[in-house]
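Homework-ish question, so no full write-ups if that breaks the rules, but can someone show me the predicted structure for this set?
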Amino acid sequence: MGYHAGDYDVIVIGAGHAGVESALASARMGCETLLLTINLDMVAFMPCNPSVGGPAKGHVVREIDALGGEMGRNIDKTFIQMRMLNTGKGPAVHALRAQADKFLYQHAMKETIEKQDHLTLRQGMVEDLIVEDGKVRGVVTKTGAEYGAKAVVLTTGTYLRGKVIMGELMYESGPNNQQPSIKLSEALRRLGFQLARFKTGTPPRVHQDTIDFDKTEIQPGDDKPKYFSYETEYMEHSQNQLPCWLTYTSEETHRIINDNLHRAPMFSGLIEGTGPRYCPSIEDKIVRFADKPKHQIFLEPEGRNTKEYYVQGLSTSMPEDVQLNILRSIPGLEKVEMMRTGYAIEYDAVVPTQLWPTLETKLVDGLFTAGQINGTSGYEEAAGQGIMAGINAARKVKGESPVIIDRSKGYIGVMIDDLVTKGTNEPYRLLTSRAEYRLLLRHDNADLRLTPLGYEIGLIPESRYQKFLDKKTRVEAEIERLKETKFRPDEEVQAMLAACGSAPLQNTVDGVTLLRRPEVSYDMLAKLSPALVELSEDMKEQVEIQIKYTGYIEKQLQQVERLEKMEKKRIPDNIDYEIIHGLATEAKQKLAKVRPLSLGQASRISGVTPADLSILLVHLEHYNRVTAAAAAQG
Amino acid sequence: MVEDTIAAVATALGEGSIAVVRVSGPEAVDTVAGVFRSKTDLRSAASHTVHYGWIRDPENEQVLDEVLVTVMRAPRSFTAEDVVEVSTHGGMVAVKSVLGLLLRRGIRMAEPGEFTKRAFLNGRIDLAQAEAVIDLIRSKSERAFQLARKQAEGSVSKRIVPIRSSLIELLAHVEVNIDYPEHDVAEVTAGVIRDTCQSALKQIEELLRTADEGKILREGIVTAIVGRPNAGKSSLLNALARENKAIVTDIPGTTRDIVEETISLGGIPLRLLDTAGIRETSDVVERIGVERSRTALNEADLILLVINRNEPLHEDERELLRQLKDRSTIVVVNKIDLPAMLDLEEVKKDYANDRIVFLSAKEGIGLDELEKAVSQIFFSGSVEAADLTYVSNARHIALLHRAKSSLEDAVRAADEGIPVDLTQIDIASAWESLGEILGDAAGESLLDEIFSKFCLGK
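A: Not a homework solution, just the prediction itself:
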């Protein structure tokens, strides 16, 4: 029944947020790419919250954009609300968060994919992988089509052996009643992959016309919104944003939940998968934080041309009838009509320590995995891995060296290193606190961190790169100018300082020193001493941040430098830890499992002590000398 | 590979008339030069030269010791890096304060076996010895680990744990504000940050103060010599002191007027409690220091119970033997130069043979046996572990100083209105420095704290 349906450089299985970035990156790097999805209407679908961004997640979107990915541009085209969060805090944690029109988001992404050269989008359910001699050779679909490939990227989201649970009801299904992918999971198991069972959930959706908004609090977007993509200059729909609405659970809500706990699959034992602590269901929250009298509920529109509202904060797998009662116990929702029922979903994930930091599996050469299949949660986390898997699949096909983003260069690097080095025992969500160099990984400098890399690998076009260089040059020149510019304690300067509540100057100081005062802003200085070249708002912001926080930035840069030598010390991938004399047994086992590429990565494996690292280092030196001696003789 | 600069004590402690602090790495010469007061400037000193001078703390101008400093420049040194060796007076106080000063000035405490490791990595040690290098690292690390575990249960840890929990609570709160800005969790204010950090600072300063006075962090096994009047406590003390030729410290206590002295018994530092009490009462037999002995007993890690063999067992002694049998007690049967009047069976009833030592303090007979017994009890015969206690204490003090300065930065930042995510960097590094003191026992994770204390979700 099988037939040969074509040959590609790279095949991406699944067109969710990881898959689309993978496929676009691979095609844009010149590889003939096939993107297969179970249902063509589900490209870049948002099965849960209709929003993109927030702390750490928004940073990742900026990073994807800086590398030449699509998520930033796509949300800019389709947002219905944009807010900058954390503006009261330091620049490193400012974070954009957009509410998406989830339907427009899908359509815009699908259109981009359809127009992309070297990229073929096709509907088809992959049921098996063709693997020969430990190398992936292609895929087979349910309809018998066999596609040849040099590399395959698996981005299966929550479809692998997906199972939907609400109350006592349980059935095999992907998200939103899509067909689950059963056979592919079996194929992975057959190939020897260790799979984990994870769980996530989504809240019910309700009809806008049945909400009493008077009982809720309005949450509008920013008047002058910023955008995710460095390329976006202005979007018309910025002027036409939709608000979200805030309400709270009531005592009645908590009573209903407590009365029905015996029907909650979380507690009845129906759910086996591990759910994330940071994304608990409402029943979980009420049990674990029993003393908290009320919980926040945000009502979020799912798009401009729909009446559906997402009920954020009410993720649940209670039975349908209980869900309706819960909803109607919430102020503003007394007469609400439920349009979709919330549910929990269980799915298979690949234990991510089975991956190299390139996201290629250690077990099958040329097979990559990205997104929820690697144990993460969130569209942004998926997309961030997706673009990296796509880049590395394409580079492998082209015979180029792999690309790994350091922990000091991006949240994408932090996330992938965490996954492949430490693994995860719950769905992994990025948090800014997971980054040790938070101040270096700012929202504002993602382009400075990653656009040169995006250009080097061919995802950033020349024109955009030149623009980037121009920005960088102007910012640097302006910082230099401020270093040279003297501010005397004259009337004008003292008046400015008095106006912002800063102490008067005693002596003449340079602009940099003055700008480091917390009360003084770049704009104030520019008024007294204007820049010689034209600077955009972005550039001014960059000048200000780089000067104001130099002390802290320097401190973190020094830490990075100190650890760099560990990161640079490579470990050969054929090393046999079993024979290394002196290594503790626990260290041997863990090192053999993770197979770190560098001493730095080895140091982050739990259970590997400093003594083990020293011993490993001595062994590596020994090995190098013996190899060198053998080479000299041979 | 460019390395950082490390330091450690290179001589066995408590032995010999000099002690050596070895410093190795690119900053070795500069850092020592910064605290060395002499006619010569070390920075320009030729390789393999020795210089006489003083080590002085530039922060408070305090002179720590009179020293000889040897400079050996790369690659002609043990590690093939720049190496500086500071020879201080023997004993622990001088060498500890010099090492502590260097650690405060940015030098890292060497890991177990690290000098040898560097020597090997830099090609100074033959390939054939790689295995020996590994064995050295492994064995030293294991002893350090055991010791750290013992210390983790100690009094310092007990005081660090609550400081750390107040900091992690604050950190978790800050992180929740940052990562969940729209959640209904109140924002941490600058005032809260300042108060929490200041209270932590106060506790750390208190710890450091007691450390400087040698009350808490001071190295050595806290040892009490107890016994009836005239049992020979003071002769034992004198014998021990004579044997070592040096009483290393003599620091008057501040809390209860107990005077302590540290002696070295075969390389194991013993902190003897209430030595003044012992000396006083030896002169005036009537003034029995029972109360003071009791106090000393409660604090001691090691008890030397002195019994006069020349007299039958007294009721007080019976009582002591019973009370102390489950503690680390060595029964010192003294005055074996005089006729035996003691019924030994009564002692042997509760004490194994290796915990009974026969000696004559006056004649200086049998002190070796005492040394062996002490070794046996604490280090299974290994003297090196004692060095490690001492060394890790210097490291602890350096880490406490580091935590202190991070917290001072945090308080300043809070006062200046610096954004909370930046202040967080200082709080987190204080938390980490304190965690390094606890080592493996630290074990708390910020994420666990966040998700157990705050209700977050979509």
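Now go work out the reasoning yourself. Hint: The domain at 137-210+391-439 of chain B is CATH 1.20.120.430 (Four Helix Bundle (Hemerythrin (Met), subunit A)).
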